[in-house]
């Protein structure tokens, strides 16, 4: 699965004609270790507690969901094997779901204005 990037990101991230983040020299273990150390320092300087590389992936998913991209498409972009995995980790950020929940709450308030709700009767 490939994901398109804005040209400005491609130019900023491409270290060699063939790779992002890597010149092609050295081992993959060395590369990942170097990036983890560098990112750890960046998170520390930015005073982000618990920062780790996976947060970029989380931010990507959340921004897509907040922009209204359907959960099914976000799941595909993340490479999840199941929609349930995406839903488990990112459902609080689904904009449409939040709007539906708020509408449900507002409808319940409107019922209470017209008269006592069943819950209010139960509580008294």
Rg from C-alpha positions? 22 Å
Main sheet makeup: none
Number of strands: 0
Q: Write the element-wise H/E pattern from the N-terminal end onward.
A: HHHHHHH
Assembly of the depicted chains? single chain
How would you sum up this structure in a few lines?
With 124 residues, the protein is mainly alpha-helical. Helix content is 65%, strand content 0%. The protein folds into three domains: 1-51, no CATH class; 53-93; 97-124, no CATH class.
Topology of helices and strands:
Blueprint: H1 7-13, H2 28-45, H3 54-66, H4 71-78, H5 83-90, H6 95-114, H7 118-123
Helix pairs in contact: 3-4, 4-5
What do you see in this structure?
The protein has 124 residues and is mainly α. It has three domains: 1-51, no CATH class; 53-93; 97-124, no CATH class. Helix content is 65%, strand content 0%. It contains seven helices and no strands. The protein has helices at 7-13, 28-45, 54-66, 71-78, 83-90, 95-114, 118-123. Helix 3 runs antiparallel to helix 4 and helix 4 crosses helix 5 (83-90). The protein is elongated, with a radius of gyration of 22 Å.
What are its keywords?
124 residues; 3 domains; single chain; 0% strand
């Amino acid at each position: 699965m490939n994901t398109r990037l804005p040209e400005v990101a491609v130019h900023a991230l491409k270290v060699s004609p063939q790779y992002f983040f890597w010149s092609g020299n050295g081992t993959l273990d060395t590369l990942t270790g170097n990036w983890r150390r560098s990112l750890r320092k960046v998170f520390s300087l930015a005073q982000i507690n618990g920062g780790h590389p996976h947060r970029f992936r989380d931010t990507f998913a959340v921004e897509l969901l907040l922009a209204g991209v359907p959960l099914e498409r976000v799941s595909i972009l993340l490479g999840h094997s199941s929609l349930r995995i995406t839903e488990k980790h990112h459902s609080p950020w689904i904009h449409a779901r939040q709007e539906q929940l708020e509408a449900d709450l507002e409808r319940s308030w409107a019922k209470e204005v017209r008269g006592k709700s069943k819950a209010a009767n139960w509580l008294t």
